[in-house]
Amino acid sequence: MIINKPREYSIQEENSSSTSKTINFKIHQEYQKNIYLIHRVLRWQLYQNRQGNAHTKTRSEVQGGGKKPWKQKGTGRARAGSSRSPLWRGGGVIFGPRSKKYKIKINKKEKKLAIQNIIYNKFPKTFIIQENFKTLQKPNTKIFIQQLKELNLPITHNNNKILFIVEKKHTNLYLSLRNIPNIDIIQADHINILAILQADFLIITLDGLNIIQKIYQ
Question: Which pTM value belongs to this model?
Fold first, then answer.
């Protein structure tokens, strides 16, 4: 059974004041069904990233080798019927990898439910900010870090992985944080289950949160 569960997010602003915004998430009432759904969608995404190009030829596919290399008896050498034998250099391969399509079917509703569930459970480590970083006139990592510190987010450890979710592509913002090893940036309409699972903290702009609400509600 799918139920609606609300989360009230506190929105951090530069002047240390905060407002709130409530979003309803659709999730399964049963915990095990949520785990199964997340696992299915995660497998689907990992399969999408696999190419499956490794491919070897068997003795029937290797070129040449139609003629018997030498006569059966009298040469003193081991008998051989074809140069395509897997025992020969340049011959076929026994039990080698074959090209394969890694694919499972996922419905759109399943994908939406899984992402909603992950975002819902990431609530304690999710921070909503009012700042849209329009003041970044040019790429500048130092200014970006300073603006992030002014928001007073309770993120203390430098080795924590942070996923920055924005409403649209900000070239200056992307260039400012791409050399920070523990921060990734993604657009709100491009979020995926793997990126959210790998992140220790989520920082979402208010406009980005509105897009997530529009897509997943």
Answer: 0.79
Give every CB contact of residue 27 below 8 A, 6+ residues apart in sequence: 2, 3, 5, 34, 113, 116, 117, 120
Instruction: Report all structural domains of the chain as residue ranges with CATH numbers, in order of start.
Output: 2-50+106-216 (3.40.1370.10), 52-101 (no CATH)
Q: What is the pLDDT of residues 106-143, one digit of tens each?
A: 999 999 999 999 999 998 888 888 876 666 778 888 87
Contact criterion met (CB below 8 Å) for 141 and 180:
yes
Nearest CA among 8, 10, 7 for reference residue 151? 10
Q: Which two tokens stand for residue 63?
A: 């070129």
Tens of pLDDT, residues 58-110: 999 999 888 899 999 999 999 999 999 999 999 999 999 999 888 889 999 99
Q: Which two tokens stand for residue 70?
A: 């030498």
